[in-house]
Amino acid sequence: MNLRQVEVFHAVMTNGTASRAAEVLRISQPAVSKAIQELEREIGFPLFHRAKGRMIATEEARLFFQEVSSSFSGLIHLRAAAARIRDFGSGEIRVACQSAISTTILPKALRAFQLRHPDVSITVQARMSSVVKDLIASGQFDVGLAADEIDVTGVDATLFMQQRLVIAVPAGHPLAERKVLHPTDLHGTPFIALAPEDTARRRLDGVLAAHGVMPKIVLETPYSTTVCAMVQAGIGCGLVSPLTTEPYLGRGLVACAFEPVIRSRTLLLLPPNRRPSRIVADCIEELMAFSSTGADAFD
Fold first, then answer.
1. Residues 137-169: pLDDT tens digits?
2. Where is the HTH lysR-type domain (predicted)?
3. pLDDT tens digits, residue range 167-203?
4. At 143, phi and psi to the nearest 5?
5. Which of 57, 68, 63, 54 is nearest to 5 (CA)?
6. Are 223 and 99 in contact (CB under 8 A)?
7. pTM of the model
8. How many angstroms separate the CA atoms of 177 and 172, rounded?
9. What is the spatial distance between Cα 280 and Cα 173, in angstroms, rounded to a whole number?
10. Which residues contact 62 (CB under 8 A, 6 or more apart)?
């Protein structure tokens, strides 16, 4: 088989009909039919039933399409890479990070980086920390920022930032008047919890259990930014990074210090056994310059 035959097959499966595939590929419908017939001869099994001028995919075609789709994902990436090389000859950088970082530190750091490298293509994905780690370990992304709850096997990890976490409280809530909250203040209080695997959640659970305190968990989410939005809506209180509270302060949310102190740690992740390029090194430099933003602001 050749790539053109596979491309025609992919177009037919994706668009549903040979005529539509012909339009997308800008070839004639007979050329589509011929390519499919040649492909069927090459692979040794029929891909479509022909009935009243229609091509109906066989079960074998659907299985084959799954494999073809995987290959096309790689081809699409190659085309995208070629376009980036054409449009941004000086390179590209791919950054994956946890949600809280993507809306706070990262925009500032990338703006500073962009001023140094205006022609570099930047790709950003905000994901859960475990996914960030996988993207870095596989080499799909160049730089990662993730919470320290992850297993760092397969990546190079260094401490990026440490913060004292705060309790986000809805404006007008009785607890909003207090500068410092303690475990007993949270007993029976409607509470928006981070995901069970989150290190900060586990540390808070340990502190509350030691004091015999049980808040009323009304919602769970892996994202601090979601916690803040829910707090702003008045659903409950939540433990968050002070960075994520900034857009909400004075807009329905109050940030209160919490004792005993609970800290979160963010890790900088790099692919293993790979020396960072100059562009990646410059990006890391800008990230580190902003890593102290908001850290330990309540100390």
1. 999 999 999 998 889 999 999 999 999 999 999
2. 1-58
3. 999 999 999 999 999 999 999 999 999 999 888 999 9
4. -135, 135
5. 68
6. yes
7. 0.63
8. 8
9. 45
10. none
